[in-house]
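In this section we walk through a basic example: taking a raw amino acid sequence and producing a predicted 3D structure, encoded as discrete structure tokens. The instruction is simple. Fold the sequence below.
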Amino acid sequence: MRPRSLQGRVVVVTGAGNGIGRETARLLAQRGARVAVLDRDPNAGDEVAAEISGAVAQALAYQVDVTDQAAMIEVMDRIARDLGPVDSIVANAGIAGPVSPLLDADPAAVERVLEVDLLGVWRTVYASLPHVVREQGHVLLVASLAAAIACPSIAGYGAAKAGVESLGRSLRIELTPTGATAGVAYFGLIDTGLARDDLLGGTPLGALATKVPWLLSPAPVTVAAEAIVGGLECRSARVWAPRWVGAALVLRSAIAPFDIALSRVPGLTSATTTPVTSVAPVTPTTAADATAPAPSPQSWRTT
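The resulting token sequence is shown next.
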């Protein structure tokens, strides 16, 4: 599809206070877009908006939690009033959660990952879709290479990202008659706080990364932002970074039989060997307590 200019278009980026979202907002502003910077942290959002606002672009920050459906609907309406009709959405907000086999993990922490990384994306899509369809714009859902491979010790994260992938692929088909489009972004490890501190910092994945640095060394955050912005310009069905991730997506079925090899990596399997006879009930997370502190301080970094 022929690339389109983002000059003057309103683009919404969730989780834009840090990492991939922050770099994406910067690059969008450089391309002349009007950027809505969404983040749970008002200070981070304000800082990004102030940094990228200038003569060629306008950016405004909005504090919102993507798990709060009513708040997401309200903020999309505010953005349309403040900046103009919403053309595109980058559903980027996400958390890492516990790095632990499921049997050993805090179940509330795992459910929080699913709440933010999957339902948060869905609620972003639901709130923004009427706006994007009116403008025949583009929705880009940020998944991960984790959507296509086994993810021992971060299974909740992998499950959420697999759901995001399916949501995005289905949405692209469904939107065909409207003139709007949708796509999915797949990233390997990117040099953000989520990767450095949450996924790799003192974890079994971090130990594995030292043994295969050619595969698990985080790539610069700029490559992810460039992939996202390019995907918006071209209305791409799929974008990825680093470049080798594209080959991994093509070969996902071929590499699946090697999953069993991961069971031999120390720390990726459960430390619990006795049968589980009972479990404590888990209180479902609701939008009302979406602003409560996470079970683990690691789980609040945005991608």
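Looking at the output, two observations stand out. The CA atoms of residues 190 and 219 lie 5 Å apart. The two ends are 28 Å apart (CA to CA). In the next section we compare this with other chains.
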